[in-house]
């Protein structure tokens, strides 16, 4: 990404909404990770991530819920504010949690405006295709950029029967493509495709002008997103599509265990970590 183009990974230039479609047009892949606090957001920003998602996966990852459904707008605001403060380059996207936009355009607008006013984020994300068109249009008309989310949509887990691949079979691919087109036409700036077969994701990526950002949707997507704790190996479990780039959970447990041992035996704090008069 040159001075005239979207910033490349590592470039200090701030990523803006228009850079996403430009990156797609040039065939340059877009990178996104979730972040829920200022420390990790600063690390990911320095690593060159294009987008940081304050996902409602915060419900599972940070609050210990078994789904995203209990997450509220009040839960989203402080982490979104912290991530937006820490991100010098990455564009920060905040999830609209379950129950904060489904009632219609007015409810979505009220939630989006509150998130924008109180966090400093640059875009919001919401789930659903044709059913969410009015909400996407209202937010976009008000100057709030929207990222769509199709395929497996965790807020509908009860309807979908849990985390299952979506878009298998010709009819399902047609429906998914129609949803993707509707989201684009309503003004979305990008669309997340979650747990979608490779061919279906490739077709949707081809028919859209806006970028697709895949999670369990194969390599043809214009970009990729992962939940950071899965990617970093923070827990024993991670979904099949989430490559573990590190084993930070084990590293952190070892560090904590060493600390416990040294405090118990009296070798910490030593002279180097103490003050003399
Ligand atoms: O909340 C989240 O982390 C997400 C990703 C799975 C895309 O929506």
Write a brief structural summary.
Helix content is 41%, strand content 13%.
Compile the SSE list and pairings.
Blueprint: H1 17-26, E1 30-34, H2 38-47, E2 51-54, H3 58-61, H4 73-86, E3 91-95, H5 105-119, E4 123-125, H6 133-141, E5 146-151, H7 157-160, H8 170-185, E6 190-194, H9 198-207, E7 212-215, E8 223-226, H10 228-231, H11 248-265
Parallel strand pairs: 1-2, 1-8, 2-3, 3-4, 4-5, 5-6, 6-7, 7-8
Features:
single chain, 277 residues, alpha/beta, TIM Barrel, 8-stranded parallel β-barrel, binds 3-methyl-2-oxobutanoic acid
Description:
The protein has one domain (17-246): Phosphoenolpyruvate-binding domains (TIM Barrel). Helix 2 links the parallel strand 1 (30-34) and strand 2. The protein has 277 residues and is an alpha/beta fold. 41% of the residues lie in helices and 13% in strands. It contains 11 helices and 8 strands. It has an 8-stranded parallel barrel with strand order 1-2-3-4-5-6-7-8, surrounded by 7 helices. It starts with 16 loop residues before the first helix and ends in a 12-residue tail after the last helix. Residues 34, 53, 55-57, 95, 149, 192, 194, 215, 225, 227 line the site of 3-methyl-2-oxobutanoic acid (KIV). 3-methyl-2-oxobutanoic acid (KIV) binds next to strand 6.
